[in-house]
Amino acid sequence: MGRILSKEQKEEFKDILETLxxxxxxxxxQYDNLTRSYKAVGxxxxxxxxxxxxxxxxxxxxxxxxxTIIQPIxxxxxxxxxxVYRLSEKNPVWTQKxxxxxxxxxxxxxxxxxxxxxxxxxxxxxxxxxRDNADNPKEKYHMDILPSVADSKYAERMARLFSESFSxxxxxxxxxxxxxxxxxxxxxxxxxxxxxxxxxxxxxxxFANRCKADESVKLREEAVVPIEKYNKDKTVLQRIxxxxxxxxxxxxxxxxxxxxxxxxxxTLAARAYKGEKNLLEGxxxxxxxxxxSITKNVxxxxxxxxxxxxxxxxxxxxxxxPKRRENFYKWLAAVKKDVHEILDGANKxxxxxxxxxxxxxxxxxxxxxxxxxxxxxxLAAGATLLTSSGKVVASTIGKVVNTANxxxxx
Length: 410
Known about the structure:
The structure is a single chain. This protein is about 50% helix and about 10% strand. By secondary structure, it is of the alpha+beta class. The chain folds into two domains: about 170 residues; about 160 residues, Beta Polymerase, domain 2. Strands 1, 2, 3, 4, 5 and 6 form a six-stranded mixed beta sheet that branches. Strands 7-8 form a two-stranded antiparallel ribbon. α9 crosses α11. It is globular. The protein starts with 6 loop residues before the first helix and ends in a 6-residue tail after the last helix.
């Protein structure tokens, strides 16, 4: 940190960063629409008679699961929702292609979903485009559905995990095998052990533990089974990830194809996080140490390893797409510079100008308004309390009045 901040200044920055994080959250209406839609498609897929013997279940993964989903840059853009369609074992003769095609055929045979399917089949997923085909105009999102297979002891192992401390070894027991069109054995291998491994449940557990930054904490079921209600309260690490993703989205609003991907940002941030309780301190620490867990393989290529599946490298596409690597390091340099420029701002106008450039003027205006409303409420509550007690504490009143109508106080 460049200049030394007073306790009051640190508190000011913490407040505005927290309200920025809240402003980035999706609304309860958006959340309710998403959950209603994914439950509906989940129920439809789970009732597939072809898959019924294998106890299919659909759960969210990615940012919706981790609590780090954010509003898109433009209010008219789509939200991206990732779902896992998991079978418990499979027919012994089925290949990856068999399973993926059967999921696709189930969706294509539906009056509701046939018109929503993205004509361009994804490498691993089927995508439903709610934007153009939904009954509800508020449904501005698309859903990626990933077919997968777990073994028959998946549920039993999951239950057992909650009585154990977190470790990569125990979490590996709940990994799944996924379909991947680019795999050499896509249409030939019937052995699921030969298929690509993934572990969205394990990653959610790891991230929940990093939010506490204490890997000795017992696992909690809600870290894996998504809570069905809208949750406004976020941990410091969740807010840090949201803020970093917003910075990325603003910087690459004209280059969505090669922007740094969320899983890399989330993983590096979670590894850098040291359990700070203060959002300002946590953000500065994470930004300054983001790249420290990037390693190199024997070919000298960058590796951002999956914390619950070390054989997976989240940066594996960088060698074939060098622009993505270049953009990641450009973003890393920019986010360091911008965070410190905000902290080193000479006055509140300069700070607000920098934050508007970095995070978007509309979002900062929204966050600022939210902060002002909070402080007015605090002032009103304080005034009521003081009146009822018959005491006047001048220093407290002065401080609240002074900051109620400003962006950062004095």
